[in-house]
Design goal:
This protein has about 110 residues and is α+β, with helices and mostly antiparallel strands. It has 4 helices and 4 strands. The radius of gyration is 19 Å and the shape is elongated.
Length: about 110
């Protein structure tokens, strides 16, 4: 293999990797994030706004703000080309809450009827 062929091969693989990285936002849209997060937080999707979204590797980090003003720091794992677009349920913690605040497991528990 000549040096130029190796250079072209490495450049092509780099371009392919960058192209795949750019597809994560297309697969995991803000609407999909909002719908998944609304179900976890127990609010309607139209009562939720997604803010400060950023993606790192297979995780997407964002702030979910409800219409009542509550804010949650959330993470979704998946939604990339490498995971075939599949996502795990979001994990959200209410901002300003103590570390033992809401977790995915206790947010899904039924609330006591008063």
């Amino acid at each position: 293999m000549t040096i130029w062929l190796k250079v072209i091969l490495v450049a092509g693989l780099g371009y392919f990797a960058l192209t795949l990285a750019g597809c994560a936002d297309a697969i995991l849209s803000n609407d999909r994030i909002r719908d998944n997060t609304a179900g976890i937080l127990g609010v309607s999707p139209n009562q939720l706004t997604i803010l400060d979204r950023r993606s790192e590797m297979v995780n997407t980090y964002y702030i979910a703000r409800t219409s009542s003003g509550d804010e949650y720091a959330c993470t979704i794992n998946g939604g990339t080309v490498l995971s075939a677009g599949l996502v795990n349920p979001p994990m959200c913690t209410k901002r300003g809450a103590n570390p033992s605040g809401p977790t995915p497991s206790n947010l899904l528990q039924p609330k006591p009827v008063q």
